[in-house]
Design a protein that fits this description.
A: alpha+beta, 6-stranded antiparallel sheet, B: about 250 residues, mainly alpha, 4 helices
């Protein structure tokens, strides 16, 4: 009976590892894993991407305008702090929010794609972090080419095409949009001649 | 035949007299000469005495005549000087009079010039004013005509512009997600009024101002509605709707 009590948890643990299908260490509660060199990519991690580490977008503040925003860079991983924020093309954001942005720093991407089952993980990638490669969905205005937006969610990897984009929370976006709607050429109808 | 006893003649050379000998020999002659000179002088003196007297008298007379003539000349000179001084005084007086005349003439000329200037200026000013008045009157007439035409043009353009913009707003009203019945009714009423004003020939400025104010208020309500919808779209993260609303602000 005592042996049985010992064997059952061991079997359960082995089963859990087996079910994970990956030879990497999975973070509980997160779609995230730490790679181990020499192991193979499991089925459920196909389509993921691995990076040396996770860097959250940099949070900035324009005190004059009272706007807090996140500056996105290639391979940033969206953190819980910016979960559900709305990312905007920087050209449109500057016009829309009247905020002057710094030129985004150039970054060199060092990704490793987990693109098929059984792909051997190189030894030098030990310790890299793998996450599902689900980039934000970009919405584009058919007329105004700079009017591009995307909602960013936790654990998403920022693609290179969104490098330098700005993200703001939805309430800030709502306030800025409301204010912006009273400006521009579309708001001059009916003024006295 | 020679005879040795024959005497030989001796040649004796007389000696040269000395200076004393010569001087002693001349003394009588000198005395005689002095006496002769004295005698001759005496004779000549007596002989010229009368002549000298006559000469002195003549000289004296000449001097007297000279003095007389000198006095006459002086007298004549004084007279002449006096006459010249008188003439000079007269000339100076005349010159003064001429100077005075010249000054008077100059003053008169100045006065004449000033008068002429004033006259010319006055005449020119009067002419200029008259011409300006003519120009002004003509300009006012033209301005009135242009203003009339301009007002009419402006009213037509205003109404057309107002209608166009109202139609734009109308499109926005129709495009609003949360369609407001009241907004649409107001839009229809406002549009009808604008059309009616456009057809009216004698539309007043006040009517246009009232219409403008109504349109402005209506626009503000539409702007507020669409801004509210944009904010709602942002809060609900409906990015397509948000961009559509933002495009309205872009004037597209």
């Amino acid at each position: 009976m005592t042996r049985l009590k010992l064997i059952v948890p061991v079997l359960l643990a082995a089963l859990l590892v087996g079910l994970s299908g990956c030879d990497s260490q999975r973070d509980p509660g997160l779609q995230r894993a730490t790679l181990k060199g020499g192991k193979k990519v499991s089925q459920d991690m196909v389509g993921w991407v691995a990076m040396p580490g996770t860097v959250a977008p940099e949070i900035k503040q324009d005190k004059d305008k009272g706007v807090t925003y996140a500056l996105l860079s290639t391979d940033n991983v969206v953190s819980g702090e910016t979960n559900g924020w709305i990312a905007i093309n920087p050209k449109y954001f500057s016009k829309f929010a009247k905020v002057t942005l710094d030129e985004p720093k150039a970054v060199s991407s060092s990704r490793w794609d987990l693109d098929f089952k059984g792909k051997k993980i190189p030894q030098e990638l030990t310790g890299w972090v793998a996450i599902p490669n689900t980039p934000p969905k970009i919405e584009r205005d058919p007329v105004n080419k700079t009017m591009e937006m995307a909602t960013i969610w936790n654990n998403q990897v920022i693609p290179s095409e969104m490098h330098g984009w700005v993200a703001i929370d939805k309430d800030t976006m709502a306030k800025l949009a409301e204010k912006y709607m009273f400006t521009g050429p579309g708001a001059d109808v009916g003024k006295s001649k | 035949m020679s005879d040795t006893n024959v005497p030989v003649p001796i040649v004796v050379t007389p000696a040269e007299p000395t200076l004393g000998q010569k001087f002693m020999w001349s003394l009588p002659a000198t005395g005689i000469a002095i006496i002769a000179v004295l005698v001759a002088s005496f004779v000549l003196y007596n002989f010229n005495k009368e002549t000298r007297t006559d000469f002195n008298a003549a000289l004296k007379k000449g001097l007297e005549d000279q003095e007389k003539k000198t006095a006459q000349v002086l007298q004549t000179s004084e007279t002449k000087n006096k006459e010249l001084a008188d003439q000079l005084t007269k000339i100076n007086d005349r010159a003064g009079a001429l100077e005075k005349d010249r000054e008077n003439l100059s003053k008169s000329l100045d006065k004449f010039s000033v008068s002429m200037d004033e006259f010319v200026t006055k005449e020119f000013t009067t002419f200029k004013k008259g011409q300006e008045q003519v120009d002004k009157t003509q300009h006012q007439d033209i301005s009135k005509l242009e203003k009339g035409v301009g007002d009419l043009d402006r009213r037509i353009v205003y109404v057309e512009d107002k209608l166009k913009k109202l139609d734009d707003i109308g499109q926005e009203v129709l495009g609003l997600q949360q369609k407001s019945g009241q907004l649409q009714k107001d839009y229809v009423a406002l549009r009808e009024d604008v059309v009616a004003v456009g057809k009216k020939a004698d539309v007043t400025k006040q009517e246009l101002a009232d219409l403008d104010e109504r349109a402005r208020l209506f626009q503000l309500r539409v702007l507020a509605a669409r801004a509210r919808e944009a904010a709602d779209a942002a809060r609900s993260m409906d990015l397509r709707e948000l961009m559509k609303r933002l495009s309205d602000a872009e004037g597209k």
